[in-house]
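Hi Q.,

Before the meeting this afternoon, I wanted you to have the zinc ion prediction in hand. No need to reply - just skim if you have a minute. The sequence and ligand are here:
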Amino acid sequence: MILLGWNPDRGDDPFGGYRSTVDEVTGAGFFRCKWLLPPLQATAGTEVWLFSQGSRERGVLGHGRVVAPPDPLPSGRGGAPGIVEFDALRPRGDSIPLDLLTLRVPGIAWGVNRPSLRIPAAAGLALRTLWAETSTPEEADPLLPPPGTLPPGALAQARVNRYERDPSARRVCLAHHGTSCAVCGFSFEEAFGPPGRDFVHVHHLAPATRLVAGYELDPIADLVPLCPNCHSMAHLRLPDPYSPAELRALRSAAGFVPGTTLSPEQLTAQADAVRILGAR
Ligand SMILES: [Zn+2]
Ligand SMILES: [Zn+2]
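Predicted structure with the ligand bound:
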């Protein structure tokens, strides 16, 4: 785990506009950019924390990981260029402030400016806890832990969850596969009419555990439409979700026959029976 120093007051802006990058991370789930990294400490997958060391704001502002480590050739003082993928960036002014860092993550000279710093494991754990405490839950999915609050394996899962919500990837997937559930065939448009049009979940087929560094999403090959029920069932198995084919096999083994869904009349009759029998 390494801390990457960034001075927002200086001209060199790796984000090409920090404010718009914050929006991009919120929407797409990640943002990649070049960064001067310490060659010995930055390997593929190394977690990084963005540390703002500007005159007006000093504090931890973001989280990510190394996707392309720098060449192990001799490098200058600032490090060698590699690629970092940020999965959480807070707006400026919303960082974990210096006084809180000093108090809760001791053993690190938070007041000193530097391009990068290795964070020892204990301090890393404390920083992660503090990040979680000061994060606001995701608006789109309050159940999804904010990036940076869980260890790297779980981070990969959070990334997969983000692929499933990425609006442009979703459009490409649905344009190709349609909007009916790939397991049970349920169509929200057929069942609910116009309001159900285009409503369906999108599921990422490859489990998070098999995403290698440098993985690029293919919305047609890697995503399928699933109704929320089948989607929940897919993720019931951990860490590798059930595939659509496995789910279809489970359904037929369980004796599901299409058309056996109870009608509202049958459900009312059942409820009446329970009420009448229960009242006896
Ligand atoms: Zn389904
Ligand atoms: Zn899924």
